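Hi F.,

I've been meaning to write this up properly since the lab meeting, where we talked about keeping a consistent format for the predictions we share between groups. The idea is simple: the sequence comes first, exactly as it goes in, then the C-alpha cells exactly as they come out, then a line or two of notes. No screenshots and no reformatting. I'm using this chain as the first example so we have something concrete to point to.
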Amino acid sequence: MSRAVEINDLRLTPTGSLPVRKSLGQYVFENLKHAIIRGDLLPGDRLVESRIADRLNISRTPVREAIHKLEREGLLRKLPRGGFTVMNLSREDIEETFGIRSVLESYAARLAALNHQEEDLEPLEEMIHEFQIALDRGQMDKLPGINTAFHNLFYALSQSPKLIKMINDLRDQIYRFRKIILSIDNMAKTSNEDHRKMVEAIRRRDVSGVERLVREHILRGQKVVLHALEQRPGDF
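Output, unedited:
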C-alpha cells in the first residue's frame, strides 16, 4: 500500500542555503535523490509537487523539473491519477546490477593488484579498522558510509578513470543495496573479513585470487538482497 509522504518529515534543505550557480531544479533533484538513497523515501511512497514546493518555499516549476529527471533515471514512476511514486526494485533489477558489479569490480581488483604501490594499501587498512570499531560499538548507521569509502579507495587503485566512472554510475543503486546487506545478521562482520582478504590478495599481487574474492563478495551480497526481497517486498 502506498504512503503519502509528509514532506515536512523529510530532511530537505531549505533553499536559503542554495549553493552559488546551482539551479533550483538541480538542487531539488539532489535533495529528493538523496532522500531516496538514504531511505527517507521508500518504494511506493507518493510525491506531490505542491507539497514539495511549499516545503522549500519555491514555485512548482523546478520541482516538476526535478521529478521528471528522477523519473528518467528510473527512481520515480508517474501514477495514473496524478503524482509520482518511488519505484520498486524487481528481482531482474537486482540481478542485473549485481551482475554488472561483479564484472566491473573484479576487473578493478585485477588492475589494483597489478598497479598498486605498498603505501596505497594503508588507507584501505584504516577503513577496515574504522569499520571494525563501529561494528564493535554497535554503531550500525556508520557502516554503509565506511564501507562505501573503502570501495571507493579500492576502485581508485585500478588507476582507470573510465572504469571508475562506470562503477560510479551504479553508485546510488549500490548504496541502497549496501544498507540492506549490512543490516543483516553477521553480514557486516563477513563483509569486513572479505575486505581484509582482498587487501592481502592485492598485497601479494594475486590477480586471480583477488578477482575471485571480489566476485564471491558481490554475489554473496546479491543472494542476501534477493532473500530480503522475498521476505520484505515492500522495502524494495
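Notes:
The domain at 3-86 is CATH 1.10.10.10 (Arc Repressor Mutant, subunit A).
Strands lie at 3-4, 45-47, 76-78, 84-86.

If this format works for you, I'll send the rest the same way.

G.
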